[in-house]
């Protein structure tokens, strides 16, 4: 068997030409750049919002921006920065860099990556489309179009975000746009987790992966656990706004604090979801410019994981002033202080690396790291201050907190992002950047940043409240004037940074493979990388596979992985875009994964999803139904394999004829991991919905009267759902033995049992005669039961889809991953039914509060 040539690899992995071809592209080198560009577009829009906000506050009673528009700018600025820039930007950087850094050829699910990116872009555009009427009203006389821009802050606290106080569609634009961002974030997180755990070069065990990979792995796990909270919360709020279900209305048994619990269970881990990968970027830049490995690798990796875990114990940090018990506030205050310890470990590791270096190159990325260290330490110190309950009660709603979180988020996240983009830009674009412009950009931004936010500490301590469009006390004027002028300076520095990017594309020289003398695998391929990233798969034997040589010289190429056993694969047949999968811990070659090729389906499905969301937003329900039906064949076209894709006759040809399986199941298969992680996200959503029910019914300020629903029929439905697990497992066991007939019978039995269970549960639910608009208990009952109904329908659709494939003979003893996945999904669905029924029907019998 002859080796596959670079030209053949390029043809296999190439991005389609033309505009329409680009809409079909799924290669991470292209989609990653699109993702990066879209996040910076939303960053620019949000930055302009902040300039307008600070311009209004330049002097007492300035009168430049009316109060209503100030609230709108405040909302769009915070929402875009948090949901459309920081986390998506870091996920975009990870999706581009990880395959290069880990010695792989692509992300594990290229079409899902493309779908995620287009969903994110359309969701962001849908959110910002609320500003179109304002633009039209500036042109047309009489301002004829209604005001649609969200105006309730990026946190959207009820009751201000309820229909009573926000009667238009403003908040609905916020909720729909947020849903898009969270859905895209969870999908991207699954991609990142699988990429780090399964798509690595042989020999790159977990104690050898770059610290940036460690950081984005922890970030993605945190996203998977935190983002469902805001999805649950926004679902409740949208149901309240559209259908009058009073989750947050105290007059009908709701509680606005439930929103705060859900939102901040997401919102405080969100801070570390941004901060952790930012510190990972710093841990890549520091050793590259110190020309030595990072000090305390194991301690830094442990600190990254500890920070991610501890971040979930801090959400009450934002609720110290709402009247919670002092014991709870003391515990959460202590946790908020303790999280400074793992952050300190990383800071000391960076300092030790620089301290013990023989020489440190102070290039532009290193300048951004130094700026980050100064800002991050300052923000961390003020963070410990606001973690103290007595101090927080005084400073909570003042500009002191505004200054604190901007030092953490702008200085602690934006600076590493700008440093990381400068660091990886030669690899992404294949062009060097102008160091002179970069240095000017850093110093102008750094001065402007501190001029903007340092005075806000003093303004806050002098009593200036947050979220107000003006002030009258002349004592506050110098601090606000300095902040506004600093914003203008910072804007100029960011404009210089953008000009450096544009100028590099127009005039700068081509970049070598390793312009920094770094030690990780992304620097062993050409700049810009070929569409397949790594032609030959590296063999990793150390944490820095590329030993840095003298300054300015190229890095030594890594060793190449050679299959221990090879098989003769005919190269004359079709070549596949394939990657090597390894074991999660010690990175031993395990199997071959064939990547999905270019397809328009991700783009079209994202577009139909946007149209459905817009139709729901404007309450045009027939359009939503029709487009949802249209999306079904698109999804089938995406998922339905061709005959060639069911055989993969020439698999392994581009990997040296590796004698590794293509069809795998269990932990060896990417699809199994994807299903397991999806179930984790669904399980977290269920747990949060159950928490919400128990909070309102038993732990809220007013205990709700709870009637005891009859148990007979609903317990039977749960019994049938649980019993349907047996034929699903039986079908899986049958196909493992190659028994097609028993497979079909088992899937059919699961389908019938699930349908009977769903019908019984639905009939019982209808017979209860719930009136969800009357009180929060019945609203929560209907919503939690509705979640189970939707989950069951989706699971039955998946079983039916696999049953259809089984009928056509798609599966055998080797190829049956889809059967395994639907068995997993149905097992979770039946368990969810038991949890739901236990919560809604059994808990009232165990707890004393109920209606006679």
- β-strand amount: under 5%
Task: Profile the largest sheet.
Answer: 2 strands, antiparallel
User: Numbering strands along the chain, what is their spatial order in the largest sheet?
Assistant: 1-2
Number of helices: 26
Question: How many β-strand stretches?
Answer: 4
Helical residues, percent: 55-70%
List the SSEs and their pairings:
Blueprint: H1 6-13, H2 18-24, H3 28-56, H4 67-102, H5 110-128, H6 132-139, H7 170-198, H8 211-243, H9 256-290, H10 297-310, H11 326-338, H12 340-355, H13 364-386, H14 389-395, H15 399-429, H16 435-461, H17 477-506, E1 538-539, E2 559-560, E3 578-582, E4 589-594, H18 601-617, H19 621-639, H20 643-647, H21 670-699, H22 712-723, H23 725-736, H24 740-767, H25 776-807, H26 817-846
Antiparallel strand pairs: 1-2, 3-4
Helix pairs in contact: 3-4, 3-5, 3-17, 4-5, 4-7, 4-9, 4-15, 5-7, 5-18, 7-8, 7-21, 8-9, 8-10, 8-21, 9-12, 9-15, 10-12, 13-15, 13-16, 15-16, 16-17, 18-19, 21-25, 21-26, 22-24, 22-26, 23-24, 23-26, 24-25, 25-26
